[in-house]
Amino acid sequence: MILRLLRVSLHVGFAGLLLVAMARVLMSGPAAAGWPILALSLLLAAVYLIGTLLEKRHSTDTKRFDPGPYAGWWLGAVSVMWLVLIWASADFVWLAFPLFFLQLHVLPRRAALPVIALCTVLVVVALAFHNRGPAGAGLEVPMVLGPVFGAAFAVVTGLAYRALYLEAESQRRAAAELRRTRGELARSQHDAGTLTERARLAREIHDTLAQGFSSIVLMGRSAEKALDDGDSATARERLRTVQETASANLAEARNFVRGLQSPALEQMSLAGSLRRLCEKTEAEAAARGAGLHCRFDLEGDPVELSNPYSTTLLRAAQASLANVWVHAKASTAVVTLSFMGTEVALDIYDDGVGFRPDAAAAGDNPQRKDGSGYGLRSLRERVAALAGTLAVESGPGEGTVVAIRLPLVDPAAGSGDRQ
Q: Quick one: which of 232, 233, 240 has its CA closest to 216?
């Protein structure tokens, strides 16, 4: 507002002084001698107005024509016409004061100050020229002090205006940079949130829907084989398992939409869900003709766990047991849930063919083309999100142990908050 007020005052002052000078020319002297001066005054007003309008349009919309490279030529044209007018009439010398501000604004300081000093001398000379002769008193002290003090005041005010202008430009650029940075930050946060949500959905789908669909496919094949063998009772049992698994998958899909916990955890405790999972795993393995015995053990005094803890442990057991009965060729699997005061532990053991954990961690066992091979990485991400630890002990022909430890203090809730 201060800068806008100063600019408006400068332009209004220039226009007012020019109109006063033109009026005095009309009121004094022959009309024929005054018309060239009035014509030049109107040309000066037009050039001045065009320059200021072009600068204003560009300041509001930088895509418009930029008069900046031609500002020096514009100031030169205005100054030349003003010099002609002050030699024609002393009434135009007072236009020097708004011109001083223009010179400070358009020219570099090292050039503006000498130009202002030269214009001040020309004003004094013009006043002395028009005050000469019998009717005039010649050059008087006020004719010198007035322009000098006016020039000094214009320089001080102009420098202050320039400082304000530069500060305003600096703040404008800083504000634009801040808006740009905020926009980039918002986009990066959105992208990070999108990637995080994709990773979460990938873990959930792998540990629930993908495992369920895999079970449905295997149970369907087993039912088909039973029908081919004429064993309708077994086929009916397999189809019942397919229906139950499909219903569970449908419930999981609906919970994804609602963003709730696993349906199994809504119906019973974590220990009950793990026990039921062992029974389901044993039944599915039997349907494939594998003699897998799966047992659940509970150690310690159970405590109520928050939804993220319960869901992570259940998903870990689901993924691990799916690997056991699909890949490990094990005869025994044991799931142990232990409450140990400051932490909860989940251990999944099987006596299957085993594998090399170091090779899997190093990427020797990448995700397969069919979408499998994602379980261990998904499990590590789940456990790491809760500040827990995951250890996998295995070897070819030595079985596998997956050990998970989660602290019972929620790191997101602060120290001392029990789950």
A: 240
Q: Beta-carbon neighbour count of residue 315 at 10 Å?
A: 21
- The b-or-e profile of 257-273 (16+ CB within 10 A means b, else e) is eeeeebbbbeeeebeeb
Domains of the chain, residue spans: 2-139, 280-419
**First and final C-alpha spacing in the chain:** 58
Look up tokens 């020219």; give the residue.
Answer: 107
| Predicted TM-score (pTM) of this structure | 0.45
Q: Which residues pair with 339 in a beta bridge?
A: 344
Beta bridge partners of 345: 338, 405
Pairing of strands 293-299, 400-407: unpaired
Written as six digits, the tokens of 245 are 């698994």
The string of pLDDT tens digits covering residues 2-56 is 657 767 777 888 888 888 888 888 787 655 557 888 888 899 999 988 888 888 8
Supply the DSSP string of 301-330, one letter for each residue.
------HHHHHHHHHHHHHHHHHIIIII--
Question: How far, in Å, CA of 419 to CA of 404, rounded?
Answer: 17
- Best CA proximity match to 78, nearest among 143, 18, 144: 18
Architecture of the structural domain at 280-419:
2-Layer Sandwich (3.30)
